[in-house]
Amino acid sequence: MSIDARVSEILVEVRVLELAALNRDGVPHVWPMSGSWVPESGHIIITTPPAYPQKVFNIRRDGRVSLFYSDFTGSGLSGARAVLVQGTASAPATVAGPHDIPDYWCALFRKTPSLVDELAPEYRDAMDWYYWRLPIFVTPERVHVFDATASGGQLEPYPPEGAPMAEQIKDAMERYPTVVFVGLDENGHPYSVRAEVTQPGDDLLVRPAQPFQGTNGPASLLWHRHNGSSGDMTSLLVLGSAADTGSGWRFTPDRLPGALTGGHDVSSYEEWITDGKRRTAQYLDKRGLTAPEIDWDQLVGYGPAK
After folding, report:
1. What pLDDT, in 10s, does the model give residues 144-203?
2. Where are the beta strands (DSSP E) in 49-158?
3. Residue 227's domain is classified under what CATH number?
4. By the 8 A CB rule, do 48 and 55 touch?
C-alpha cells in the first residue's frame, strides 16, 4: 500500500513503537520495540535477539500484527499524530548478522547515535549475542491516523518487580498518564489505541482516547515509557479480556506474562548478560544453527559519521 509523506516521517522517526501479535491463546501480546521503515521494500523491519524469541514464535503461527506509533519521546516530532499500522508479518527461520539487515542497524544508530559507543572492543565478547537477530518483516495493509494523546510517565522510583499483579497495576495507573489498549477488530487483527484507566472495582474501566475498533474478547494493556535514547525503559503488560459497557471498556486482568529483570543496577545488568548468552545458546543448539560472524568494524560503520 502507499504510505504518504506525513505518515512515513512518523514511521521513520519514532524511537519506540508498540508491536502487537497474537499469542497461542489468541490474546494480543504487546511489546515496546524499535523498528525501521524501508519504503523501497515496502516493509517495516523489527528484530529480536534469539534469546527472546517469543514474538517470532507468535508471528510464525499467525502473522496478523499491529504497529502503534504513539510515543514521540526523543523523536523531534512535535505535534505529530499517532499512527496505527495493521499488517501481516513474516519471521523467517534464520539468525541474521548485522550485515544481513543493514537497514535496521543504520536506522537504529541514526536515531540513537550513543548506541555505537556500546560497540567498543571491551564490550564485544559480552554482547555478541545481542547483535545476532531474528528479523521480522511487516507489510502494511491498513493505516489509521489519530490525534495524539499523552504518553510517557514517571520513570523513577522504578516499578516493583515480582509484586502481586494488583500492586503492579496500581503502580502503573499512578505512574503513567495513559495505557496502550489492544483488542481484536472484527477480522481478528490486533487494534491498538491509547486510553485512560480507572479502577472502580475488581476490574478496570478503560476509556479509549482515540477511535477504537476492537470487539469484546481477548485484550491487553501495556504501560511503558522510555527516555528516547539507549537508556532506561520501564513497562508492564497485562493480558486479559475486555467488554464494551457503552461508557468505556471493562477490562478483566488475567495474568502478567514473564518479565525480564529490570537491569537497573550492576548486578542485574550482569545477570541479564549471563541469562542472554545462556538463552541464545539454547535457541541455537536446539535448532542446529550456527551464530553468524559479526564484522564489528562494518557494524560501527552503520552509525552516523563523526
Report:
1. 999 999 999 988 888 888 899 999 999 999 999 999 999 999 999 999 999 999 998 789
2. 64-69, 82-90, 134-146
3. 2.30.110.10
4. yes
